[in-house]
Amino acid sequence: MGKLVLVRHGQSQWNLENRFTGWVDVSITAQGAEEARRAGRELKDIRFDLAFTSDLKRAQETLAILLAECGRTGIPVEKDKALNERHYGDLQGLNKAETAKKYGADQVHVWRRSFDVKPPNGESLKDTAARALPYFNEKILPAAAAGKNILVSAHGNSLRAIVMELDGLTPAQIMQVNIDTCRPLCYEIGAKGEVLKKTVSTAA
Q1: Angstrom distance (rounded) from CA 17 to CA 123
Q2: Does pTM top 0.70 for this prediction?
Q3: Which of 47, 79, 166, 192 has the most CB atoms at less than 10 Å from its CB?
Q4: Which is the catalytic residue, given 35, 42, 69, 85?
């Protein structure tokens, strides 16, 4: 049995500014760094063997801080754009409140939370899953099934795609799922890749 811990990056500068970020490569804020340290303290009793992160620095910065807090800075880290946030297309860089005024709050909610509706020139969650899940099933899940403790630092929507698969959620159910920044989701994974137990952080 291995542990698989999923962590969304700490608050980024564009999270703070309420902007659609997508693949724009912005850093985390001071608050985001503190969120990562808090998560690291919470996870300090897990001896991670391997870590995975996206090709975007907000996830990488979070991972580096978290591992330093855990005392696990020497472990192998694999970076891949398969774990990147969904690409928000024409919405990238736009303020979310202003976008809701322009297109309507209901439409923006559908773009943000639905499974298969794409924002203009962007990716749906279904598209994000189509690139994230093959990588997850080839690289990450087998390592946890082999008994390794794995840490994944990624993004709200790439992690929603993974959670949808692990939890067996429907497209309707995933619309209600939000991944909070630096709130670890801990899975115990069996030898066949099955979920034995899930724990969600409630730390303040």
Answers
A1: 22
A2: yes
A3: 166
A4: 85
Burial classification of residue 182, based on how many CB atoms lie within 10 Å of its CB (0-12 exposed, 13-18 middle, 19 or more buried): buried
Look up 188 and say whether it is catalytic: no
Cβ–Cβ < 8 Å for 99, 35: no
155 tagged catalytic: no
What is the rounded distance in angstroms from the CA atom of residue 93 to the CA atom of residue 107? 18
**pLDDT per residue of the chain (204 residues) written in tens, 0 to 9:** 999 999 999 999 999 999 999 999 999 999 999 999 999 999 999 999 999 999 999 999 999 999 999 999 899 999 999 999 999 999 999 999 989 998 999 999 888 888 999 999 999 999 999 999 999 999 999 999 999 999 999 999 999 999 999 999 999 899 889 999 999 999 999 999 999 999 998 665
Could you write out the three-class secondary structure of the chain? CEEEEEEECCCEHHHHCCECCCCCCCCECHHHHHHHHHHHHHCCCCCCCEEEECCCHHHHHHHHHHHHHHCCCCCCEEECHHHCCCCCHHHCCCEHHHHHHHHCHHHHHHHHHCCCCCCCCCCCHHHHHHHHHHHHHHHHHHHHHCCCCEEEEECHHHHHHHHHHHHCCCHHHHCCCCCCECCCEEEEECCCCCEEEEEECCCC
